[in-house]
Structure formats: C-alpha cells, structure tokens
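Quick entry between incubations.
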Amino acid sequence: NAGVTQTPKFQVLKTGQSMTLQCAQDMNHNSMYWYRQDPGMGLRLIYYSASEGTTDKGEVPNGYNVSRLNKREFSLRLESAAPSQTSVYFCASSIGLAAVSYNEQFFGPGTRLTVL
Amino acid sequence: AQKITQTQPGMFVQEKEAVTLDCTYDTSDQSYGLFWYKQPSSGEMIFLIYQGSYDEQNATEGRYSLNFQKARKSANLVISASQLGDSAMYFCAMREVSPGSNYQLIWGAGTKLIIKP
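Done. Structure below.
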C-alpha cells in the first residue's frame, strides 16, 4: 500500500517548456488535489477533482491544466513553464468531498520544480 | 472569506518542554473542521490531529493536543514533552462543510519549530 505517489521528484525546466506531473493513489479515494507550496506560504490549491470525471479550479489555476485519468490518477500539466511556477508541488487525496468536517487529506512526497 | 493565521514564523524550544503553536481562523460558518499537519525537512506532509467545530472536547493524539477555543476562533496545537524529532514546519488548516461551501482546505503559512537539545 503505497498511499499517494508522485513522479518525478525533481525537475528542472527552461522557460516555455512543458511537462506533466503524475500522481496516483491506491486508497480508493474519490477526491484528489494539486497544491503548490512556496517559501513562507502555506499550501495553495491549484486544481482539484471531487470525483472521477470532474475537475475544478482552486485558488491559483492559471498556467496549469489537469486530467483525472481514472479514479487512481490525477495529472498536472504546465503547458509553457514560467519562473513564477518554480515551487514544490504536492498531490493529495481524500475519501471524498462529502459534507463532513473530518476528511483527512493524504499527501504524496512532492515534486520540486525549478523553472529557469 | 475564510482565513488561517499562524502568527509565529519560527520558534525555538528546549527539548522536553511543552510547546504551543498558535492558530487563529476566520469563518462565518458554523460547521467546519480544523487540522494540523507536520512537515519535516524531508518534505512530506504528515497529518497530526483534527478538531470538529461541534466537538465538545479538545482533540488529543498521543503527545499532541488541540486547545480549541471556539469563541476566540483559535485552535492551538500543544506538543507535550518535545523531542528533537519534533523539529519541523507545522501547518494549521481549516475546512468548511456548511451547504454552499466548497469544502476545500485553507492553509496557514506555517510555524517552523526547532527543538534544542
């Protein structure tokens, strides 16, 4: 039981390059999330997927796209990377987006992305 | 708009002492949940403790307890008998669950805790 896995762990891009961050969970969770973490700031939600087949924008969606490939996998794509997208990216999952207050999110190990 | 404030950017605490990490939140909703996560230098996010807005008792998980003061909108994390391995960033987060909310976690900026031997 690996929990939430992310690939790659590290990536360096040049401005304008594109790439896709991969995320998978094996906990049969319905909801998945992509966050970015910048120094001195808390996590900020980029996109989320409440359930398979749905995706919604979070707080900072500009410059990103997502795909909920199936229940297990949720990918994040940078079409044209910019230095402002240098950050640590976390994928997370939870049982669901139900209206119950206890809904712990489980996190992947993160991807450190540098855009030159 | 909902907001989480952690006023202590960094703290130094002597090993074996208790430590309190502050968290205040702002919400107009009656139903919400409060979470604390730990992020060690290795980078992963580790769930520590949860408190529901309707929970009458303060949550406890081993050495972690949550000092929940609803009227003051504070949810401070207390770590008893601190250990060197407690050195990490600590994040407070809130999730609203009232009808019409988007159920998303809102995160504070974090507190960097360093335990001195």
